[in-house]
UniProtKB/TrEMBL annotation:
The gene is Tti2. This is TTI2 protein. InterPro entries: Tti2. It comes from Daphoenositta chrysoptera. GO terms for cellular component: cytosol; nucleus; TTT Hsp90 cochaperone complex. Belongs to the TTI2 family.
């Protein structure tokens, strides 16, 4: 957050790091994934003018994280699972704001075809955000 908008100088490298951490579970406490979700939120808040061009890649990774956090049946405690879902939802809301509503448009078909209640609830929160 200290770098502010200057973070855009490192966006290509930072995006690769963020995507790498979002893809892989790091154990029951999911400390790395939770930390990288905070990093992504901060990055979106500070570098929001550059987020629309990164939307397809980040949206795909966040949706995959939502699905994985809900469906993985490992030793991850329920509060950690809920924190992952909440963090991913917050990132989707921020992405939607930075892209002037494009996330909501892209999620319309996903929300209607998803049968998992917890994932639907996260998508509903994104759809209802202002």
């Amino acid at each position: 957050s200290r770098r502010g908008i200057l973070i855009v100088r490192h966006m290509k490298r930072l995006e690769r790091v963020i995507l790498g951490y979002l893809e892989v579970s790091d154990g029951p406490e999911e400390e790395a994934r939770l930390g990288i979700l905070e990093t992504l939120q901060c990055t979106i808040e500070h570098a929001w003018p550059r987020m629309p061009c990164r939307l397809p890649v980040l949206l795909k990774a966040l949706l995959r994280l939502l699905w994985d956090a809900h469906t993985e049946r490992g030793p991850t405690p329920e509060p950690v699972r809920a924190a992952l879902l909440h963090g991913a939802t917050q990132c989707l809301v921020l992405l939607d704001r930075s892209s002037r509503g494009r996330v909501k448009v892209l999620l319309e078909g996903v929300h209607s075809s998803c049968e998992e209640n917890r994932v639907r609830e996260c998508l509903r929160k994104v759809q209802e955000s202002t």
